[in-house]
Amino acid sequence: MGRYVLRRLLQLIPVFLGTTFLIYALVWAIPQDPFAGKCGQRPCDPAYIAEMSQKLNLNDPLVIQYLKYLGNLLVGDFGTTFNGVSVGEQIATSWPITLKMGIIALIIEAVIGIVAGVLTGLRKQGFLDNLVLVSTLFLISLPVFVTGFVLRLYLGPQGFDLMDTSVSSDPTFGELILPGFVLGSLSMAYVARLTRTSIVENRRADYVRTAIAKGQPQSRVVGIHLLRNSLIPVITFLGTDLGSLMGGAIVTEGVFNINGIGGLIFRGIQEKEGIMVTGIVTLLVLVYLLMSLIVDLLYAVLDPRIRYE
Amino acid sequence: MEFRTRDGVAKVLNGVSYHVSAGETLAVLGESGSGKSVTAQTIMGILDMPPAFITNGSIKFRGEDLLSQSAEERRQVRGEGIAMIFQDALSALNPVFTIGFQIEEQLKVRRGMSKADARKRAIELLDQVKIPNAKGRVSDYPHQFSGGMRQRAMIAMSLALDPELLIADEPTTALDVTVQAQIMDLLAEIQKERDMGMILITHDLGVVADVADRISVMYAGRIVEHADVYELFRAPGHPYTESLLESLPRVDLRGQELKTIKGLPPSLTNIPPGCPFNPRCPRAFDRCVTEVPAVHNLGMGRTSRCHIAEEVVARG
């Protein structure tokens, strides 16, 4: 196991280099003047261009630029934008908010998705089953921004006034529950369906029959024997999903005016702040890679038949 | 006992009746689909209902009718009164829990034993079924055991609550021949030690001959013949049993073509009229097609559902 972890950690290095280089190249190598529109309506001052080009290493070949960027990254320097704002500081304020929202979304999708999946998987073709199938289909086919706007409008003061839907600049967990729900709604539908299929598949398994034949109470037959086996694919999905949740927060953050990573990356793209985009996407790649490593390790814990050596 | 499916109602069991006493082994013999496993699962109460329906009948255990008991009462009987082992121990054991966990679970949940006591008892049980180094292997997972060892572990698990009756549903079918013999010996030994009743479900006549006291032969959801094991092998009382015995490979008939039973067992949604065996029976005559044979009593507890049972058994 220890050797496997080490090997997987070493594998992270080429994957990390490959993905970040790709992002860097895509952002900076596009055949366009990076200073276009940076200085209002008129072209930029040549002195400014020279200074910024020097600062961003724009005169070097792409590979050298990338290596210099990487070097700075390794010492924790994310660089500064054209306006002189530190990317690192921006990320430091936005990152915890998105992470908080991502975790809330993950918890919501896991709890609601698994409960709905188990209930419907055990009782196929009942009222509840149809309800969950239809509502998950609904959630899957609706774009997240629609779900977000609708919920914000109807639950908020302009609608039924059930809760305060506004989110402050330094949001608490409570404020992030609704955005978290919206963010996780799509995955929640997938989790419910995945759990349902998995339960349906396993509930006729021989070991479930054995547990019943042993005279174990129903709660243990389902809660221990059936669930433990059925949740293996679900947990794998949930693990990798944290990465996509954080990357996919752009829309949700836009709908709820949340000052998170998504908003930052969106503004970065709009304002052609390449250095901002590269920095954030690099971080998201890291989250993805780490989560998939954790999932792979968790897999071996959940299913003892899998051994890495 | 019926299965109501989309393809129609399958009369899976019809007039099946047998009894087992303490310390006795009853073998239930039959082809695949003859209803032998369903009978066992009906006794255990582990069939899914629906599609299964018990239209009438009774299952008496310790003098009480299990079918009139509540679900909770029946659950209490499972494991404690009647335990069951299955054909394929690899799929019948939960792959994600250790062997120890699966045995201890019985002791902890059903007997309220402490963790330490349950572990001690689980090791004892594994010892009893002759698993070498039981102490070291108790925390292994099913996939780390060999096929024979897995079935032994399964037996140990079934013995955890000291059942009075053990139903073994083709316990050796998935195993190598040498291992089969070991498992059968183990079952016979344990049964003797504990004076436990055993229902052995099998399609293997060889297995039956070694360990069974009495045999019920099933065909198309009915018991066609019931006899003492010695009597049955000496002189079968039903043409189906006769054909089964003739289809056994024999050393003294080496070089001759092996006899088989022509045709296939009938579909349970469409059992032929009269005697269900008549389309395949070498002795069938016109009455077999029109009239369901009654149970013929052949003396000494032997019965046969054949119009000419007396004639068949006399030939033996």
CATH-derived topology of the largest domain in chain A: MetI-like fold
Based on DSSP secondary structure assignment, what is the total number of beta strands of chain A? 0
User: Biggest interface between protein chains, with counts per chain?
Assistant: A-B, 21 and 27 residues
Helix and strand pattern of chain A: HHHHHHHHHHHH
Overall shape of chain B: it is globular
Which parts of chain B are unreliable, with pLDDT below 50 for 5 consecutive residues or more? none
CATH second-level architecture of the largest domain in chain A: Orthogonal Bundle
Backbone shape of chain A: flat
The first-level CATH class of the largest domain in chain A is given as: Mainly Alpha
Largest sheet of chain B: 8 strands, mixed
Give a quick account of the main beta sheet of chain A: strands, pairing sense, barrel closure: none
* Tally of contiguous helical segments of chain B: 13
* CA distance, first residue to last residue of chain A: 7 Å
Let me know the average pLDDT of chain A: 82
Approximately how much helix is present in the residues of chain A?
over 70%
| Strand percent estimate of chain B | 15-25%
Measured on Cα atoms, how large is the radius of gyration of chain A? Answer: 24 Å
Topology of helices and strands:
The complex is a heterodimer of chains A (309) and B (316).
Chain A: H1 2-28, H2 46-55, H3 62-74, H4 87-122, H5 127-141, H6 144-155, H7 177-202, H8 206-213, H9 218-247, H10 249-256, H11 261-270, H12 274-302
Chain B: E1 2-5, E2 8-11, E3 25-29, H1 36-44, E4 52-53, E5 60-61, E6 64-65, H2 71-80, E7 82-85, H3 89-92, H4 99-111, H5 115-128, H6 134-137, H7 147-159, E8 165-169, H8 177-194, E9 197-202, H9 205-211, E10 214-219, E11 222-228, H10 229-234, H11 239-246, H12 286-290, E12 296-299, E13 302-304, H13 309-315
Helix pairs in contact in B: 4-5, 4-7, 5-7, 7-8
